[in-house]
Amino acid sequence: MIGKLTGILSDKNPPEVIVDCHGVGYEVNVPMSTFYNLPAAGEKVSLVTHFVVREDAQILYGFATLAEREAFRQLIKISGVGPRTALSVLSGMSVADLAQAISTQEVGRLVKVPGIGKKTAERLLLELKGKLGGDIGGLFAQGAGDAQGDIQQALLALGYNDKEAAAALKLLPADVGVSEGIKLALKSLTK
């Protein structure tokens, strides 16, 4: 029903924020990954949202990126994983880290997230296998722009981890092409 909110950030109290949209204040629960990237109170903010209607509550969840929202939606489809647990997962690790943990089937990375035990982590890995790895990785990369996303995907395909790829992308000029960007990124990573 409510897919996106754009307005003034009027209050920040983790994990909840209030977004004032033309005089209407929406209470939005956000993962800490989104919370840390929010502007100061009183500034303009835009969040993609997921609206949950239950018998006893109507709750709005907000995310900085489409990839975060899609990961959240995939997580809450899993039996035994509710919105709070999904927020906890996204607060404890980035979408790219989650996608990588799922594609490499690393239980240890998920168990480090508060509220996730070994059995829940194994269920997440089993049920999200093939659903999250490729799709979310692609959405995550597109968030940075087409050329930047293609460069990041190339670096990941070559075996570099997310942190190395992100560090290399930061060193690139904003208007670099894909092939030149890959060459420059590889040069910076081999130093």
UniProtKB/TrEMBL annotation:
Top-rank taxon, per record: Bacteria
InterPro entries: DNA_helicase_Holl-junc_RuvA_I (IPR013849), Hlx-hairpin-Hlx_DNA-bd_motif (IPR003583), NA-bd_OB-fold (IPR012340), RuvA (IPR000085), RuvA_2-like (IPR010994), RuvA_C (IPR011114), RuvA_C_sf (IPR036267)
Location in or out of the cell: Cytoplasm
Cellular component terms per the entry's GO annotation: cytoplasm; Holliday junction helicase complex; Holliday junction resolvase complex
Residue stretches making up the Helix-hairpin-helix DNA-binding motif class domain: 73-92, 108-127
Swiss-Prot/TrEMBL GO biological process terms: DNA recombination; DNA repair
Main location: cytoplasm
Membership in a protein family: Belongs to the RuvA family.
Domain notes: Has three domains with a flexible linker between the domains II and III and assumes an 'L' shape. Domain III is highly mobile and contacts RuvB.
Known function: The RuvA-RuvB-RuvC complex processes Holliday junction (HJ) DNA during genetic recombination and DNA repair, while the RuvA-RuvB complex plays an important role in the rescue of blocked DNA replication forks via replication fork reversal (RFR). RuvA specifically binds to HJ cruciform DNA, conferring on it an open structure. The RuvB hexamer acts as an ATP-dependent pump, pulling dsDNA into and through the RuvAB complex. HJ branch migration allows RuvC to scan DNA until it finds its consensus sequence, where it cleaves and resolves the cruciform DNA.
NCBIfam families: ruvA
Name of the protein in question: Holliday junction branch migration complex subunit RuvA
Origin species: Limnohabitans radicicola
